[in-house]
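Q: What structure does this chain adopt?
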Amino acid sequence: MVFIEYAYDVEVLAKKHGFFNTMVTNGYMTNETVDLVAKYIDAATVDLKGHGDK
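A:
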């Protein structure tokens, strides 16, 4: 996750003003990061990339 501090601040403000939050992520987060943002995220999209020939 890039700029988690900024993302967190925006999520908190958005929720305070009645907006929904969607996170688009590659899924590479620590457990602490997930715990921090989980209560402010309404939906998440995990974009998995990889080589699929095997």
